[in-house]
What we know:
The complex is a heterodimer.
Chain A: E1 7-14, E2 24-30, E3 35-39, H1 46-53, E4 61-66, E5 69-70, H2 74-83, E6 84-87, H3 100-110, H4 115-128, H5 144-156, E7 162-166, H6 174-186, E8 190-194, H7 198-204, E9 207-212, E10 215-218
Parallel strand pairs in A: 3-8, 3-9, 6-7, 7-8
Antiparallel strand pairs in A: 1-2, 1-4, 4-5, 9-10
Helix pairs in contact in A: 3-4, 3-5
Chain B: H1 18-34, H2 38-55, H3 59-83, E1 89-92, E2 95-98, H4 99-122, H5 128-137, H6 142-171, H7 180-210, H8 227-246
Amino acid sequence: MSKSPIIELRNISYTYPHNSTPILQNLNFSVSDKHIGVIGSNGCGKTTFFQIIVGLLTPDTGQLLFNGENVESKKQLRGLRKEVGFLFQSADDQLFSPTVLEDVAFGPLNLGYSPAAAEKIALETLANLGLSGFEERITHKLSGGEKKLVALATILAMKPKMVLLDEPTNNLDPRTRKRLIDILQGLDLYQIIISHDWDFLDQTSSTLYQVEHGHIHKCQEDHIHVHRHMHKAGDYPHRHVH
Amino acid sequence: MMDERFAQGSSLLHRRDPKAKIIAATAFVTASAITDSFTVATVSFAFSIVLFLLTKLPVQLVLKRLLAVNSFTFFLWLTLPLTYGGSEFITAGPLALSIEGIRLAALITLKTNAIVISIIALLGTSRIANIGHALESLHLPQNLCFILLFSYRYVFVIYQEYRRLVRAAQLRCFVPATSIHTYRTFGYLFGMTLVKSWNRATRVHQAMVLRGFDGRLIPLSQDRYTSDDTIFLSIMLSLTLLLILLNFL
């Protein structure tokens, strides 16, 4: 018997309220690879896809399976949310505690760890991301890049098996972007990354999916390729047309 | 705007536990607010100055705040002497100024300044976050503490969002004037800020739920209440009691 995928979506359809056309229609997806990249045009339903996976949106029809089990009860949903972390597009939406330490410890505290244990986990997580010394910083005073990394720390502190990243490189400078790539490459977790940043996806994912017309499908292998070349400002993500 | 300038420091008052300071401030402010004795108001004003000196904060910072507060008491000085009535008057040209009105305006000014200075010295010297948690451990309703903590966290973000919209309007040559166009534009700006804040609140709540939030905010324990805090609180409460007794002399 083969092991069930950690997440599987079957025949999912979803229509936003006050909308006539469904944004997702009979979508089927199962996690087949540890490093998945997701592309698609603006408004095609990529974020909706993530919100369905973590149960923030309830599909009109279809099933969400977690480790092969249909997710129906609140308890199952809590179990899923512990294992599947979601990094939002805007870190400001995710960091709500006054200090970094409190924010990173928030998840572990909710999972039932004692304050001392939660603090230890938070400090370890921050150290693993190279953010030691950030504990007492005030969250809203961090720079954009620092916020992104701290938001990632808040998710990793829950010790998930899988992370969903929604356009993580938006507004990051090349240095922080490189740091994020290094961090993601070093994480032994299932990762699904939504991005418009091709170069970033190339370095962080091995399978590429595309969301289009309410469906998601695997891109052909030869869609991603690498060339090495150099020019001014070459470390910024950029497109080449051949 | 939100740099918590007063909370930066390591003076005697900065180091006190916020719980002790909240209790001390509540007692002292109440005692100062309810008095109608000039002597008590003067003593509490002097006392608040001493508290402020203990914080070792720069004076011009607090003067700026006091200027804002006294712009309100200024109007009392304009109106009370003329309208309060009473039996004694001094005449200044065509005006008859009520002595009791002047006395009342002076009393209110004294009390207001004493209260503001003592609150800066006692509560301003702790970070809002710590005050929030301290209120929680003093068993204030949790929802109120939520509101305090979250307002503190997001007021800045909402303000920035508003500023961004105003800047966008200015960049398209919007100049406020007394016109329907201006009123409508400001209406849109406020409305849009409200909508954006609502959307943000939804996303923040989602982020919290995804990390296992179920309605209880569990604080990382920060209990640093020491015997020094007990001594400080005892002194503060004794002085407040003296202040109250002074009313009956």
